[in-house]
Amino acid sequence: MQRALVCGAGGFIGSHLVRALKREGYFVRGVDVKTPEFSPSAADEFLLLDLRDAANCARALEMPGGGAPEKVFQLAAEMGGMGFISSASSRIMHDSVLINANMCHEAARRGVGRYFFSSSVCVYRDMQPGEPALCEDDAYPAMPDNDYGWEKLYSERMAFAHARESGMKVRIARFQNCYGPEGTWRGGREKAPAALSRKVAEAPDGGVVEIWGDGLAVRNFIYIDDLVRGILALTDSDLDFSPANIGTEEYVTVRQLLETIAEAAGKTISFRSIPGPVGVASRNFSTARIRSTGWKPVFSLREGIARTYPWVAEQVALNNKQKTP
Ligand code: NAD
Questions:
Q1: Does this model's pTM top 0.90?
Q2: What is the pLDDT of residue 131?
Q3: Which residue owns the Cα nearest ligand 1 atom 20?
Q4: Residue 241 alpha carbon to ligand 1 centre in Å
Q5: Which residue from 52, 102, 106, 320 has the least number of CB within 10 angstroms?
Q6: CA-proximal residue: ligand 1, atom 1 (nearest)
Q7: Residue 36: its pLDDT value, please?
Q8: For residues 122-138, b (16+ Cβ closer than 10 Å) or e, as one string?
């Protein structure tokens, strides 16, 4: 039985990845500073460890029965939507780089076979609507829009440096925005699909929700099940020393995202622009590299939101019920 370590297993993508690995027959150890918020982890073992500490990384890699796991999936990070990313630069750069430096170094030293690292399309420069797609090599010369992107770019390079020197097979995905049930939906770290779903759930039919900026920024959103399949396909692929973008080819404005959510809710919703951290103007990335593994997304935005909105609406209703004496 292959053994996998999932770092960040208490988070959104990590907890879904653990479930997928269990379905594939792995022995899975999850590690995080917290357990999953919405349902119990499917991992065989779950360790609560702070991975900024090298000794904890070493502890996480010492599997039951001895030795290191065959595969490590490194998703632990200081993470959030634009509101968080634009206000927590030092925390992101300090904490995430420590996690990545220590985990990658210990994994290489201990002979881990395959090491997956979750990077982001935030490594790319800002784009204007209508620009042709950027491919992975276009991340250089580097000009990420935010410090979160700079940390990811540095950690990508660090992981590949360890791969060159140790022989560990490093696989790096640059994720587009991911959404789905059991993602953060409130508290300041939620991303646009969850934040807008919450606002629509809270609004009456015919109501108004606030969006940051004019809502014309172009974005791409990938449903969690598609992303998790992409992680597994990339990790098992022979795509050495080349990060791969994982996203769909469906680009929408934030206004169109809101319309899709309102449609799933069966409500007529209009919006009011308010000042806020909008982020880049546009996105457009090639997915040819990940598609070369045979992977392709199957969920349209409409289908993914139709599965996500009801879950967010249920959280809103549960929360309201708890508040009512
Ligand atoms: P998440 O915040 O839900 O999960 C990250 C997990 O890392 C959390 O459970 C958190 O507790 C854990 N963590 C943070 N500091 C830790 C520490 N010191 N020790 C151990 N665990 C720690 O985020 P997510 O959306 O599941 O993202 C997973 C990964 O994918 C991250 O690396 C993120 O940067 C990357 N990513 C996500 C998206 C997206 O749209 N969700 C897009 C691009 C990249």
A1: yes
A2: 95
A3: 32
A4: 23
A5: 320
A6: 11
A7: 98
A8: bbbeebeeeeeebebee
Please give the number of the atom of ligand 1 that sits closest to the Cα of 191: 40
Active site residues: 148
CATH of 3-178+222-246, one of 3.20.190.10, 1.25.40.10, 3.40.190.10, 3.40.50.720: 3.40.50.720
Q: How many degrees, rounded to 5, is the angle at CA 239 between CA 103 and CA 224?
A: 70
**Structural tokens at position 50:** 């702070």
Task: Give the type of residue at 84.
Answer: F
Closest residue by Cα to residue 243 from 133, 138, 127:
138
CA dihedral defined by 232, 235, 236, 238, rounded to 10 degrees? 140
**What's the CA-to-centroid distance between 109 and ligand 1, angstroms?**
24
Residues whose CB is less than 8 angstroms from the CB of residue 175 and which lie 6 or more positions away in sequence, other chains included: 13, 118, 119, 120, 121, 222, 227, 246, 247
**Tokens representing residue 135 in the block:** 């491919």
Q: What does CATH list as the number for 181-220+249-283+299-316?
A: 3.90.25.10
Q: In this predicted structure, what is the pLDDT of residue 88?
A: 94
Binding-site residues, ligand 1, Cβ < 6 A: 8, 10-14, 32-34, 50-52, 75-79, 95, 99, 118, 120, 175, 177-178, 184, 191
pLDDT digit string, tens, across residues 37-80:
999 999 999 999 999 999 999 999 999 989 999 999 999 999 98
Task: State the distance from the centre of ligand 1 to the C-alpha of 75, rounded, in angstroms.
Answer: 5
Mark the ranges of the chain whose per-residue pLDDT is less than 50: none
CA of 269 to the centre of ligand 1 (A): 31
Inter-CA distances, 139 with 29, 89, 124, 127, 145, Å = 33, 20, 5, 12, 11
* Nearest atom, ligand 1, residue 183 CA: 3
pLDDT of residue 82: 86
Per-residue pLDDT at 81: 86
259 Cβ partners below 8 Å, 6+ apart? none
The structural domains of the chain, with segments of one domain joined by +, span 3-178+222-246, 181-220+249-283+299-316
